Predict the structure of GxxExxY protein.
Amino acid sequence: MHVEEVAAIAVDCGLQLHKDVGPGLLESAYQKMLAHLLTKRGLSVEEEIPIPITYDDLIIEQAFRADIVVERKLLIELKSVEKLLPVHRMQVVTYLRFMDLPVALLMNFSAERFKNGLVRIVNNHHDTKGSKLTLHQ
């Protein structure tokens, strides 16, 4: 399945979750519920994956944890904050680079409307045909 198809399903699941539950829960609750919805849609989902990074000759085995990785193609970073800040986007850009993944979705479940808390971020990904989300590079 193409990463854009995976992203479309993830957005659909995120929208459904936001509609059903609304804002106000911890990120960990949204993470479990979103992973459940994605799995029900037949997708492979991994949560809280430790990601190593290498800098110079130093290897940090668990430099960060990826909230959700879908089909080993799409990173989903979840937030439950009043407002997304530039640092949240930069965090995802860095994660994408170190994970060498093409696309990420930053989802803030505390936004009043789901679309206002959704950001699509790419990493050396140019095959965006069919994507309906705004492109942030």
Notes: The chain has three helices and six strands. The chain has one domain: 3-136. Residues 3-136 form one domain.
